[in-house]
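@channel sequence for tomorrow's demo:
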Amino acid sequence: MSLIRRQFLTRAAVAGTVLGAPVIANAQSARFNWKMTSAYGKGSPFYMDGPGSATDLAKRIREMSDGRLNIQVFGAGELIPAFEGFDAVRAGTVEMNHANAYFWTGKTAAAQYFTAVPFGMNFQGMNGWFYDGGGIDLWNEVYAPFGMVAMPCGNTGVQMTGWFKKEIKTVADLKGLKMRIPGLAGKVYANLGVDVKVLPGGEIFPALERGVIDAAEFVGPFQDRRLGLHKAAKNYYTTGWHEPSTVSELLINKAAWDKLPADLKAIVTNASAACNVISEGWCQKANSDAMEDLIKNQGVIARPLPDDVIKALKVETDKVLADAIKDPLTKKVHDSYFAFKAKYDRWSEISEEAYHLKVRG
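structure tokens (generated this afternoon):
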């Protein structure tokens, strides 16, 4: 190679490095200030405060990004009403919302599958579907027409069936009952004659105490005790039929998401995945302590729903799901969800269930 050619290539390489440096530097020094709203009130444990919560997620993102992505968190009612996060993110009023996808079933029926499905999968199964079974990809396909992306960022694990002022002995006891219950489970109860109500967490106790409702489902022992639901009703039912695990959703405006450099997207994704696991672990400890207190010290009667009631709920669930999948996109999500569940159930029978039946017991 001639001397002149070597000098030209060397100078070109140096120039390319110098010209490219500002682009890299600008990408790594750009700072973003975002707003994130929530469907839950400021200070709410699990949702807004504590390990895996919305504020914890924002803190992790800020620290991992060295302050390049700063997220201001607003509780329900501070910036927008509790159930208007979907519209706010879609419009770009805020960049993020922290809630549960099943609040948006009025926008798209498929949203339910990304929170909880009656008689569906537990925490382990949901995560398997999300991260390795195509669940998150489907989630984003469902939200694409709305200009949004989403990912799991929390999970309560199995939830309690709820609080009832009167004992439930048969299916007939459900008829005419006024109950706070969201999502597909609300439609299932409605088929059995329940008068379904959807109320934010802060409105449940006064409604139950005053007799505006006769029963209520919220989350689990810790959260329910914090709301004082045990003071308004003493019959606490379980099985988790309606929400075998309940996923928290991080909803993001797609235009804002696309403006983030790749490393900040990775930080958000990984912080969200961390909160998904950490929050569920916190729930196990908090619920264990709270349930012990409710039974030993608060006069609460905890028991499973009668078998015939569970069977009736399963029959109606199948009908509700059959109606939901008339929508092609919902059917696509449904088929993916239940195909994964079938394989997971077979594995769970010889792993988790065998352990609970043969070892733990």
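heads up for whoever presents: The chain is about 50% helix and 15% strand.
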